[in-house]
Amino acid sequence: MKWSLVFLLAFHLFSAEARKLQPLKLISASRTPWAGGIAGRHGTNYNLVVSCSAKYKVKLDSIWFKEEGTYGLKQEENHSGFTMQVKTKSNPNNFTYEIIGGSFHDDGMRQHPDDFEKLQDTSNPFRVKGVAVVSYIFKQKKYYLPVSAFTNNPPVNYP
How far apart are CA 36 and CA 155, in angstroms? Predict the structure, then answer.
């Protein structure tokens, strides 16, 4: 009993310390649904801003969106039906990363069954709770930054 209590206390302290070591912090997360001028075309624009101290070497890896799936955050990666861009701002004290993503869906009638796009697997590969999860590398170890909720902007309806 005594050892299990000591183990539990040590585990709790280690977990709390591990959470403190994660340098990436979520600043804001928003999404804006849109509908196109052509029937059946719609999507969502996502905007996430994360920041970390300049003393840390963080490398963004990938992002998972609950409704969209998982996407790599390397600039050269190309995603069908989804655009992704990462903007970096820096000053002597910190780095700020703006992750901009946008989905495009076309529910219109198609003439051939082969024309349907392959749908992205939307299951959460990181097993971290949230509506989105940012995966990043810090000190050669993978960490996950959960996004608990998005700020919902008003929908945009294009003519």
Answer: 11
**49: domain range?**
27-106+119-157
pLDDT in tens, 21-68: 679 999 999 999 999 877 778 899 999 999 999 999 899 999 999 988
Q: How, if at all, do strands 94-103 and 156-157 pair?
A: unpaired
> Which run of H or of E encompasses 20?
helix 2-21
User: In this structure, is residue 111 part of a structural domain?
Assistant: no
Number of folded domains that form the chain:
1
User: Quick one: tokens of 124?
Assistant: 């959460």
And the tokens for 91? Answer: 């000053």
Tens of pLDDT, residue by residue over 2-12, are: 655 545 554 44
Q: Are 70 and 63 in contact (CB under 8 A)?
A: yes
pLDDT in tens, 61-90: 999 999 888 888 875 566 667 888 899 999
Measured CA to CA, the distance from residue 125 to residue 94 in angstroms comes to: 29
* Residue 126 resides in a domain: yes
pTM metric for this prediction: 0.77
Buried b (16+ CB within 10 A) or exposed e, 23-50: bbebeebebbebebeeeeebbbbbbbbb
